[in-house]
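User: Some background: our group keeps a shared notebook of sequences we're curious about, and every so often someone picks one and asks for a predicted structure to add to the entry. Today it's my turn. The entry only has the sequence so far, pasted here. Could you supply the structure so I can complete it?
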Amino acid sequence: MSNLYLILLHIFLTFVLTHSAPKGSLITNVPGFNGSLPSKHYGGYVTIDKSHGKNLYYYFVQSEGNSSKDPIVLWLNGGPGCSSFDGFVFEHGPFNFEKPVTKGGLPKLKLNPYSWSKVSNIIYLDSPVGVGFSYSRNETDYGTGDEQTALDTHVFLLKWFELYPEFLANPLFLAGESYAGVYVPTLAHKIVKGIEAGIKTKLNFKGYLIGNPVADEEFDGNALVPFAHGMGLISDQIFEDTVKACNGTFYITDFDPCSKLISKIHSIIRALNRYDILEPCFYGDEKEENHKHNPKLPLSFRQLGKTEKSLPIRKRMFGRAWPYGAIVQDGIVPSWPQLISNLNTAPPCTDDEIAMVWLNNPDVRKAIHTVEKSVVSEWVLCTSKVIYHHDLGSMIPYHKNLTSKGYSALIYSGDHDMCVPFTGTEAWTRSLGYKIVDEWRPWLIDDQVAGFTQGYANKLRFLTVKGSGHTVPEYKPKESLYFYKHFLEGTPI
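Assistant: Of course. Here's the predicted structure to add to the notebook entry:
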């Protein structure tokens, strides 16, 4: 009898493992790529509210390793209002994209040797609804916020695992960057509450990692002035005068003479590329291609953005990071962090044309199973369609709660990002008050310093990535895959 039971169980599991993916979700070809995919790809929608016709789009890449055992990672880009195809196309997706020879032509895709799918299954989710290919039949859903987004994404995950039950036992991690510093801990909170409540679909949640994350009004708001001083962007005298006039509080600037000094700092640093102060930024109608071989530029500037990827580092797009557009707090546009908000008046560098061309190509949209153009007429990297309310305040209590319960957390920062500077992130991670178990030290790649890190009790780690801007896997793909792999495995970095 026991042998019969084992045979039947084997047959059942074999059926589940080979037949559980929703019909029509398998992506059989990826336009622009020639060759066999290194793992299975799936794409489609999960309806999270049938009455409203509320649908979230996902692109799922199975691990190139052991997909049945490797972790499942949900990736979220920030904004709020930016598509997670940002991470897919420009950061750690399975492909590197080459610009087409003719303008508007289909980009060529090559395999990315530093794809995060090398060591994990990864879900790229367009969230909240109204972002990327996600949509609702009821446009009132485009007014949302932290609480609703966390609730919706939790519903998505529960329903996604119903569609892909073979992955339910895999370790689950959350990951993201920028305003996903709000998305990730609030979603993790919902997941943990569900686990503790004993809901039917029990997620095997293990932890999260976030890059250059928005976290807290005070810490983030106060970060830029010491960052600018430490990086030599403002003089000792300006820094000392500002500290004295502002009493060390730089994010509330509606009083003189503090506000005048903060405005002075803004005017000094305004022309810098705020997503990476080392990167040049070209304005007007001229494209960076006209400059990258310009002999008048210093060699160091001509080599900025040099990478093993076929597509060089992008110069950041205006409004590309939080706060993107229509974000509301208590009915008004918030001042958090005021310094970052003021930086959004800076001129643009270049656009993200290659993603726009590829994702709006009819063959691509058909291949990856997006909704028809009558519903989502055009994919854009970051949308102003979503009216977003920051309604959950500081993320520090969320981090404290999650890490105190034993969930692993890696908070990493590109150390040349001026949008969400590492100075604030290092300060709030330290403010949790945990015992230091791995004192500040360099971490290495190929016997070279790749950044610095400090480990705390309760499996919390802060890490910097040397020379990186806001989107770390884009600037430092090899280093990113290294710390990503080690974090997921729970091995030393």
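Suggested note for the entry: The CA atoms of residues 192 and 205 lie 8 Å apart. Confidence is low (pLDDT under 50) at residues 5-18, 283-305, 315-350.
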